[in-house]
Amino acid sequence: METLSVTSVTESVAQNLRIHIIEGELAPGQKLNELELAERLGISRPPLREAFRILENAHLIVSIPRKGCYVTEVSADSCREIYEEREMIECFAVELLQAKGIRELPEVGAALEVTADLPMPTSSDAYEKFDYLKAIADFHIRLVESAGNSRLNHCYHALFPSLARYQSMYTYIPGLMNRSQEIHEKILGLIERGDYDRAKEVLRSHIRGFLTLMEDEIRQTAEPQTESLSEW
Amino acid sequence: METLSVTSVTESVAQNLRIHIIEGELAPGQKLNELELAERLGISRPPLREAFRILENAHLIVSIPRKGCYVTEVSADSCREIYEEREMIECFAVELLQAKGIRELPEVGAALEVTADLPMPTSSDAYEKFDYLKAIADFHIRLVESAGNSRLNHCYHALFPSLARYQSMYTYIPGLMNRSQEIHEKILGLIERGDYDRAKEVLRSHIRGFLTLMEDEIRQTAEPQTESLSEW
DNA sequence: TTACTGTTTATTGAAGACAATATACAATAG
DNA sequence: CTATTGTATATTGTCTTCAATAAACAGTAA
């Protein structure tokens, strides 16, 4: 028998809002009215407020005392900070693998195989991209998990929604996505051969490459998306 | 006129509990009864529950659905993870300084001067140590702040309570504290001279040195502190 | 016409009450 | 005597209500 997961209203509300923010349906800067949101989601305010605390921590919303909560703004600066943090965590994960002499990463390999068979998204539509990006992300998530530091893991999971938001809003570069697969395979191979230093450098430049592209895209599109109050 | 800070009940309760957990008055593993805590603090349960969400994120408590919240257990493993994360953040901060070519760190220097004039604590009493440790910590906090990445900063502040807890519970090594001052000065000097690589390595071995000492202490004292339900 | 002040309204902050669930204990059956 | 099941109690999860604060608007004075 599978153990059925007990999930609180707070957590499912947090997850709900998380996805809507990532997918851009809750636009940057948008005010989150507690009463309105609570009745739209069919719950009461206390669990919603607890969910706000969770999202606040993930930097998806900002809470201003006595004023309310707002969806975090997006900017090239913020994007850079996110990718810097990402570089830090992933590269350090490789360092931990090196320190522990871990070469075999079965979960990471499995994640790679899943992506290899997946069809490429055919449009820049957020919904279509979402699954594909999630599959690609799995490589990085498993890599960090393999380092065996639960706090690192937690950090990375806290970072990911912010990262996913930028990826969902801006990136649609088929060629780059395709190259990701090759690069990921290369990184895994380097680790398996014990060449952690090169693996780390390939990983680092891979991440920095994405950052550069994202920053360009953000600067090009002055107004990323002005729509708000979309029905959902 | 100074701007008087508006602080919510949620935040002050979180800060209150944070300090009590760090100082060990709320012992590891202890169950946190919502009703009992709320009336002891003279508040109601909703803000307490929101504070729980904040502390949960700082890894100071764990929340088990339908069971309640417990003060996080301490262990050599957990201590190692904390110090690994610390190493990651601080070393990456130096890398960011390097990338940006920042050599002047006035705030870090100021923190060093404060510590230089401070008297050493004369006992291992948590309360006496607390202020001294906080002053020493300021060096590291300012260093990370100087890197100019707000997310990194946030991570480090989220990490610090856990770190402070272990330092408060175990470490009382006057010689080491004294040496900290020297090492901190050395690191600052190296950065000012643009020798980021050596600065990073000194910093890294400094942090790892503390970890080794902490791990030894934890292993020696099998039962760190068995007292619980202390009056406060 | 503009700026300042007072009032009103809407929204967040906090509290108390109710419902659901988990744990512990006791009773009964094997 | 032991194990299992049922019940009771205590505690968490959620909802509804009340209070305090902030923002917006209008009115008056300069």
Which labels suit this protein?
homodimer; 232 residues; Arc Repressor Mutant, subunit A; Four Helix Bundle (Hemerythrin (Met), subunit A); 3 strands; globular; DNA-binding
Can you tell me about this structure?
The structure is a homodimer of 232-residue chains. By secondary structure, chain A is mainly α. The first copy, chain A, folds into two domains: 9-71, Orthogonal Bundle (Arc Repressor Mutant, subunit A); 76-220, Four Helix Bundle (Hemerythrin (Met), subunit A) (Up-down Bundle), CATH 1.20.120. Chain A contains nine helices and three strands. Chain A has helices spanning 9-22, 34-41, 45-57, 76-100, 106-117, 126-146, 150-169, 174-192, 196-220; strands at 31-32, 61-64, 68-71. The longest helix of chain A is centred in the middle third of the chain and has 25 residues, at 76-100. Chain A is globular. The relative contact order of chain A is 0.14. Chain A binds a DNA duplex (30 and 30 nucleotides) through residues 8-10, 33-35, 43-47, 49, 65-68.
